[in-house]
Amino acid sequence: MSAPTLTTVNLVAGYEPTLPIVNGIDLSVAPGDFVTIMGPNGAGKSTLVKAIAGTVPIHSGRVLLGDFDLTRTDLHQRVRHGLAFVPQTENVFAKMSIADNLELAAQVLGPSLRRQRVDAMYAMFPDLASRPRMPAGRLSGGQRQMLAIARALVVEPSVLILDEPSAGLSPKMVADVFATLTRINAQGVSILLVEQNVRAALAVARTAVVLVEGRIRHHGPAAELRDSPRLYELFLGTRGETAA
Amino acid sequence: MNAQPLIDGLVAGSMIGLGAIGITLTYSILKFSNFAHGEFISWGAYAALAVSSALAMLYAPLAAPLGPFSFGWSLVIAAIASAILTGLLTLLVDALLFGRLRRRGSAAIVLVMASFGAALTLRALLEFLATSKPAYFTSSLQIAMKLGLGARATPDQLLLLGVAVVTVVGVHLMLTRTAIGRSMRAVSENPDLAGIAGVDVRAVVRVVWLMGGALASLAGVMAGLVIQIRPQMGLDLLLPLFAAAILGGIGSVPGAMLAGLIVGLAEAATVMFIGAEWRAAVSFFILVAVLLLRPQGLFGRLA
What we know:
The structure holds two protein chains of two kinds. By secondary structure, chain A is of the alpha/beta class. Chain A has helices at 45-53, 75-80, 98-106, 111-124, 126-129, 141-153, 171-186, 198-204, 222-227, 229-236; strands at 6-13, 22-29, 34-38, 58-65, 68-69, 83-86, 159-163, 190-194, 207-212, 215-221. Chain A has a domain at 6-87 and 158-236: 3-Layer(aba) Sandwich (Rossmann fold), CATH 3.40.50. Chain B is an all-alpha fold. Chain B has a single domain, classed as ABC transporter involved in vitamin B12 uptake, BtuC. Chain B has helices at 4-30, 37-58, 73-103, 108-130, 155-177, 179-189, 191-196, 201-226, 233-248, 253-273, 279-293; strands at 145-148, 151-153. Chain B has a two-stranded antiparallel sheet. Classes of the chains: A alpha/beta, B mainly alpha. Chain A binds chain B through residues 53-55, 74-76, 79-80, 85, 87, 90-96, 100-101, 103-105, 107-108, 135, 151, 155, and chain B through 179, 182-183, 185-186, 189-190, 192-202, 301-303.
């Protein structure tokens, strides 16, 4: 898979037209890149990715995927253009079975591809394959997160956006989620990740963006933040904090 | 023992169940109680009456009764046309009213109040166009067949039971086995996530309105066939319909039909044991009892 670049141009977004939460964001996620967005609580990290995914209103600016302008497109059209989103909460259909969750997402694809892609997800997440008829609401937190990621990947997106996928998970499940994301990225899918677990995110991401009060304060290689105590503390507080 | 109240209850219950399926479907996906559903039932009956009368005028043999039934091919064709026309009417009402309110992010109570307004408008318009005088699909009389235990039913009434069973099975299979049914369940559970998962939510809403209209029209045609056609027929059915939809559990299609039968049988039992004047109170009593004792209904939510 070769991913187009995801770009935001001077993006201003927020729930209320008069109260922008993110202001003038210029961001790009290059093909195959793994970008993590970090920052203090209330910085606008989740709002930014939700605006890109289409669930928070965009007041001005643009969201582009390659040459295609997604700014005013409906949610489902963004999926069809290769943008997949995993929200932080309520990211699976709890009353529907695992199979229905995956098959629903596969409906975007042509009939010949649907079965193939759902089977590919079962191969990638064997835990889900063993109980396809189980309602998603009965899965553990980690399994739900895997189903949410699988649901997003069914359509072979070029960019995968995740909003705090490790929230509420055990350390073992967090490690599993990040290992899975690394594997997905290695297959060529660009990843844009909002994550409160700074150390885990910096360990896997290639690019780090620090957002403060709705504006980008730092944009550079993740290794730079990881390896520089001064930069780390400047933007993310003291080392050892998991929530930035 | 006379089994006639049982048959009367099943016939009335099938009619209520047919209407309640439409209510439960639109409620669970569009997230508001549409009190205009009763008017869609009336409009469906009148649309079928207009089409079948026109067909009979154009080609009289089409009105010749089919087998033991009181109606001919003209009503069968008219019922299909009415399902389409009533579906289009629901889309028109959505475009003019509900859709605009949804886009403004209006609360469910605003949509409910708007549905009262839509109901009043549609009913007044129907009375203006058709007058309040009762009408019938056919003037031919039917002889009720003996069913045993002193019970009798006309072939039209038995057809209503069959149509109700086929409809509930058909809608249930559509919801649980087809791609559009899966999309409808997804939109019912979480519209935002459905969009994120690639579902065209607006298209699903249009399909739900079309189905709701078609189901209302079917209920109207069957009610018109076994009772009579009046502009108030939908309004009279409204309370039993909501009692059945809530008793069945909002979102449950088999639940709506089963609850419709329960309401119908309860009405028949009331007529037999208490008095006919109490018949209309049964739905109200069931509605209050369910809301107090088991608000999720018999079968819970669409899942």
